[in-house]
Amino acid sequence: MEKKSYNRFFHLHTVSGIVISVALYVIFFAGAFSLFRHEIGHWENQKVIPLEEQNVSTNSKMDIDYFVNVLKKEKYDLNGREIYLTLENKRDQELYISESKDTLSANASKEYELTINTNTNKITEQTNEFYSLGSLLYLLHYFYQLGEFGEYLAGLVAVFFLFAIVTGVVVHWKKIVSNFYVFRPLAKLKTIWTDAHTVLGVIGLPFQFMYALTGAMFALAVLIYAPTDLLAHKEDNKTTKIEEFHSDFVMDSNYLLNPIIDSLATKWPDFTPKYIGISNYGSEKGTINLYGYLDARTKFIHEGEITYNIHSRKVTSESNPYNVAYTDIIRPIAWALHYGYYGDIGILNKVLLKTLYFLMAIITCFVIISGVLIWLTARDKKNIPEKQRRYNEKVGYIYMALCLTMFPITAFSFIVSKLLSGSTQSEVILNSVYFGGWLLMSILFWLKKDNYFTNKYTLLSGGLLSLCIPVVNGFSSGNWLWKTFSNQYYDIFTIDVLWLAIGVLTLYTFTRMKKTNTKTPIFASTITQHEIK
What is the reported pTM? Predict the structure, then answer.
């Protein structure tokens, strides 16, 4: 490559990376923890089921008609409503009832979220509004706190990140293999950060490219759905043959659902229903939507869906998991890759897969920080005007303070969420603690104007708070690590172990930090010559 072209790509890579660095760091850091958002919710609420109550009937044997009759006998008028029921193999099943389209229906404008105990058949209404820290981090991952603008902002950041990845590969292409094996801890600072940036960047390259692409797809969905909808429209104009499929039941005044669902569940071999949606209940336009999966080991794209018209007793639409159209494959593949969900692969495999995704996200955070430090050290030269150098330093202080304080405030928020009762933990309180504390810490470290100090004490405070998390959980709930593991409360155990490992590794890193004699304070745990020997 010509030197002129190389310089262009190099500057494009640098500028695109610096512009999005803080936003990208927030996305990956929040995304790393939001991978465990369901486990975090259970850890906060301590939703555990005694071992003797964990055995439940299989999904296909769930008596849907019984639950519907119980709802009718209670205060729930189902006419004209949509009913959504999960069919997961667990004791407590979630049920959602939408607003009614029948204006004469009692409480037509009210919607309900219910929980069904499959052992006692007891239906309870979820009245408390519990807001999980996992939800907060998941929303922050997409900048949903800023509304629709935040989502598109996250999408633009993903696009720029994709651009930075491509230009980075172009810049380092000739030496991408040789430089991978090079690490010079005793060289000058810029070389240290360049080596770390290159090595970790190459390790995480497939992961980062995948996340940049799928993140842009989800956050900028309007750019994806326009062409895919056009393709889908062209396919719809063709004659689409739906295999004739009639349920072996006789519809009567009792509006029986079990025979329909049992019959639809046999539509495809090895198909397991997971969700049921009933639309326009009690109406001639009433339909049943059955959504489920094949065994994940059978097919990578294994989702299937059937829509059945109760009045005509015919399947009106279907998505055959054994024969998925191209336009229907894109989003499920992107979704599986982005969220690390590949079907029912077992509890241990899910935890290991999420842990791998978590580590790759944290590595990406380090790549982002090292890129900023390369930019800072490269511009701390005598040939650069003093005014410009001071400006670069100020930008560095702000960037480092905003990024590095996410760690201790996240750990602190976990402690606060555990100390709050599940019935009192609200969105306002948790947002105030997280974002208020983050802003306060960022300002304090920014005022210090010392990147080494910022790194050192965010690691120290974050590490200590991380170790406190499983201890606080043990004292507040009695669910200590050894108890949660022996009782098979794996969600709670996973979160405690995760924070314990983070705390130990962070404090070890803190003890290995040595301040380097340099004019510009740095973020680093550089290794001295004595330590190498």
Answer: 0.76
